[in-house]
Write a structure and sequence with these properties.
alpha/beta; Rossmann fold; 7 strands; globular
């Protein structure tokens, strides 16, 4: 039995957040689907609201602080990513976009990604296909065919659902699990070709 790592990126700003709630539902469903395929799962949730200042600093300076770097490493080394954003002005949130702006453009190539969004009205549901999907296509991720959109009417009282949302969550999670189960993320080590200083000295000594 293999262990798959799922990174969940939630860009909600409020607490509690429907964006985080949807992210948790997708993570739980993905875990169940992977278990059915014989895989163990490690899930790490990244709340972008906690990294807002670090993300801004990185955009201005080009350097990531420890907390942001840990989040970036978690996402870029994951076997699968669940990315959930609230809809602001008919598109993904600025915080969501800024986080993926500070990630190297090649670091998600080939990684399975499930996209999802939340908004107050179903009129914004097309944001999945005209904004979020193109973003991850540019990053060369493998985007799950079914994205999940949740409007206010999809939630009942508390965290209960009142529409077909559970079915959509389950189907999208199953698609992600199928991709993740047969995928292992391998990233090139940028320091793999670096010759240790002691080895450089030894070679210099041998040439003398």
């Amino acid at each position: 039995m293999s262990t798959k790592r799922i990174a969940v990126v939630a860009a909600g700003l409020s607490q509690p957040s429907s964006t985080r709630l949807l992210a948790d539902r997708l993570a739980e469903a993905t875990t169940r689907s992977l278990a059915e395929l014989g895989d163990q799962v490690e899930v790490e949730v990244i709340e972008l609201r906690d990294l807002a200042h670090d993300i801004t600093d990185n955009l201005l300076t080009g350097f990531a602080g420890p907390a942001l770097q840990a989040a970036i490493d978690s996402v870029t080394s994951a076997d699968g990513v669940i990315a959930v954003t609230p809809v602001f002005t008919a598109s993904y949130s600025g915080l969501f976009k800024s986080f993926f702006d500070v990630i190297d453009k090649d670091s998600l190539a080939g990684t399975p990604v499930l996209i999802a969004a939340t908004a107050g009205t179903a009129r914004h549901s097309m944001v999945l296909d005209f904004a979020i999907r193109p973003l991850f296509a540019y990053l060369r991720a493998v985007v799950v065919p079914l994205g999940v959109f949740a409007a206010s009417e999809d939630w009942g009282s508390g965290d209960a659902t009142s529409t077909t949302l559970p079915d959509r969550v389950a189907r999208a999670a199953a698609q992600l699990a199928d991709l993740v189960s047969g995928h292992t993320t391998r990233r090139d080590d940028p320091f793999a070709a670096v010759v240790p200083f002691e080895e450089q000295l030894r070679r210099l000594s041998a040439d003398d």
